[in-house]
Amino acid sequence: MKIVELDAYAANPGDLSWEPLRELGELVIYERTPAELVVERAKDADAILINKVFITEEVLAQLPKLKYIGVLATGYNVVDTAAASRHGVVVTNIPAYSTDSVAQMTFALMLTIAFRPEHYAQENRNGRWSNNPDFCYWNTPLIELSGKVLGIVGLGNIGMKVANIARQFGMDVFACTSKNSADLPDGIQKTTIEGLFAVSDVVTLHCPLTPKTRHLVNAETLEKMKPGSILINTGRGPLVDEEAVAEALASGHLAGYGADVMAEEPPRADNPLFKQPNAFITPHIAWATREARQRLMDIAVANIKAFMEGTPQNVVNEM
C-alpha cells in the first residue's frame, strides 16, 4: 500500500515518529503541498493523508488508484465527501483527539480577558510594579468567573468538557444543543440560541461549521448580548462575522473576544480584529499540544489499519 502524506508539517513538525505509518506500507511525506501539485503527488497513492489540502471532485477524478483519504483533523470540510463516495473512496477523520487541549485553550482565552496576565507581565518588565507606591496595582477591569453565566453553543466532546470545567469555576451553564434536556447532566440548562445570547456573560462556540452556523455571531446577535460580555471562539473562524465583532469591541459592547481560529488562515494583516486591544487571537494552536498530536497520530494509524483489515472506522462519508 502506498500512503502519501500531503501536508505533514502542522501535525508533525519533527517531534513525533512516522514509523508506525511506515510499517503499514510505502510512506511518502510532503511537509506542504500547493493545490497545483496535489494530483501529481497523489496520482500513485492508494491512500492519502491530509489536514488542510482540499480534495475536490476535479482532483478525485484524476486519482483512479485512490481508495482512502485520512483527514488528520476532526473537521473534514476540506474533502468533497459526496464525490469521494461516488469514486468509491473511504474518508475518515480523527474525532475527540484534542478535547482536553481545546477546552484548556478556551479557558486560557477566557482567563486572559478576565485578568490580562500578559498586560501586567509586560508592565512589570517595564518597571511599573517596582515603582509603585502601593503593594499592588491594577489598571484594567478584573473579572471573577464564579457566578457568571456561560453560554455554550454546541455540546459535543469539547463543549461538554468546557461545561464541566465551568461548573468547577462556579459558573452557571446554559447550552444551545441538539441533545434533549433530559439527557443533559445536572447543572447544564438547555436554551435557544436567542436565549443563550441574551442571558450569557460569556459565550463560547463549539459547534461545527455548516451553512446554518456560518456567521452565527453577527451584528444582530451581538446586539442581543449583554453589554460588557465576552465572546470565545475555538471552533471555526467563519462562525463569526469578524467585522461585526471588531465593531462591537470598538464600541465597548463586547468586553473581549478570544479566538484561536479565524475566517481566513493565515489571516490578512489588515484584519480589523488586529486593531482591537481587547481581541486576543492565537494562531490556531489549541489542537497542537504534543499530547493531542500524538493521539491524532495514533488514531490515524489505527484508522488505516482498520481500513486495510476491511473494517474501516471513523468513516465520515456514505459508502
Strand order of the largest sheet: 8-7-6-9-10-11-12
Multimeric state: single chain
Q: Number of helical segments?
A: 11
Name the beta content range: 15-25%
Largest sheet composition: 7 strands, parallel
Report low-confidence residues grouped into runs of 5 or more: none
The value of Rg in angstroms is 22 Å
**Overall number of strands:** 12
| Percent of residues in helices | 25-40%
CA(first)-CA(last) distance: 21 Å
Structural class: alpha/beta
Q: SSE order in H/E notation? A: EHEHEHEHEHHEHEEHEHEHEEH
Average pLDDT works out at: 97
The general outline is: globular
Structure explained in plain terms:
The protein is of the alpha/beta class. Helix content is 31%, strand content 16%. The strands form two sheets. It has a seven-stranded parallel sheet, with helices on both faces. Strands 2-1-3-4-5 form a five-stranded parallel sheet. The longest helix is centred in the C-terminal third of the chain and has 19 residues. The two termini are 21 Å apart. The model has no long low-confidence stretch (mean pLDDT 97).
Give a quick set of tags describing it.
single chain, 319 residues, alpha/beta, 7-stranded parallel beta sheet, 5-stranded parallel beta sheet, 11 helices, 12 strands, 31% helix, globular
